[in-house]
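pasting for the record
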Amino acid sequence: MRGISKSFPGVKALQDVALTLHPGEVLALLGENGAGKSTLIKVLSGAHLPDAGSIEIDGHPVAITNPAAAQRAGIAVIYQEFNLVPALSARANIFLGQESSWLGFLAQRRERRQARALFQRLGIALDPETPCSNLTVAQQQIVEIAKALALRARILVMDEPSAALTGQEVEHLFAVIRELKSQGIGIIYISHRLDEVFALADNVTVLRDGRHVATRPVAEVTRAGLIELMVGRTLESEFPRRDVALGPERLVVRDLCRGQTVQGVSFSVRRGEVVALTGLVGAGRTETARLIFGADRADSGVVELDGKRLSIRGPRDAIREGICLLTEDRKAQGLVLGLSARENFALGNLVQLSRLGFVDGRRERAAFARYAGALRLKATSPEQTTATLSGGNQQKVVLARWLQANASVIIFDEPTRGIDVGAKYEIYLLINELASQGKAILLISSELPEVLGLADRILVMRGGRIVGEIRDVASATQEQILTLAVG
């Protein structure tokens, strides 16, 4: 790709961007949210037409005017949100739109044989007739890869492929990628997890503010150097230091239970304290947060705030009492994507932003502008549709909402998932600032470096129970946490 430029109303998304991919290469494509990665991939996949620039494959110019043209050119994209029909089988999804037929009937036997061969090529045993709705996220991802191979793709783009996978599933994904690489397939790998880049990629291309900054062999760059290329400045530390005197207990949870998912969970968080709740996927972390916030009803247990026993029947009660939750899935549970950034900010704060039963538009706009400035929210205007914001800026809209609510307890559930290192650093600074104001912070994270870098105390969950507590975080290791998490 040479000289690729693309503009949208009010935004120059790409300016003279170049990208080169070789057969059998894993090229990491990095940049902050809003750097232009998604736009560049949409140009390559035919979803966007560039304003300028050219694309060559095997030295020959190609005109990629739509997704079908990209498919014919051997280009396939596996997005973070899979393009599968849940009710159809794995086989039917793989061959959807390119079905085999014989005398006007679907040649299902032939498709099953081809699907099994594709799964064998990827090193996985999977029944082709299993409905995709019954598959795990990792298995659905394998179906997406098989679908690309069925199209004879030679260029494979993977957008945040590990975001929803467990550690073991990530290792299997890496094995699949290395197998594809050995078969001469060129892979563009987009991820915010720098550990994966160093483990997997041969070269790295960095975009910043819609421009190509650098392309380097991974062996020649350091983690700190990559971060500097991405954000345009040095970060003294990935995790900013915090020195806050802890106050008395603010949030107290006693013997919280719900079925088999949460069993007798008890802990406390003091004023100014960041307590991390970690563990493997399915350990009960998110379920515990939802019970505290009232999104689910507990079978039993007590939640206290500043010594007062709370009766929380739903999220409205929790918000009224001063407990707020940044949900793990901000798109499905934290935002109404069709509304503007301003309107999403106002949700949960309508009472304090209203006068005589009507929303006070001037007060709403002023409050949004105050927090948008403080959080360095990047939006063309307060009226920009939230769905069109980058992941980091969507998270900032939710944060702004809860800052306006002036919560005493803020629960962060995977606050930096799918967010670039620059935006992560800003969220870490904000967490520290909230703690310095005396707020109680409960941090749920699967990123163990993040847990060790931010928390004052670490609670480890397994099977719906808290199975360990680490108080000396400065001396703790990832291995220590994992030992507790796996049992």
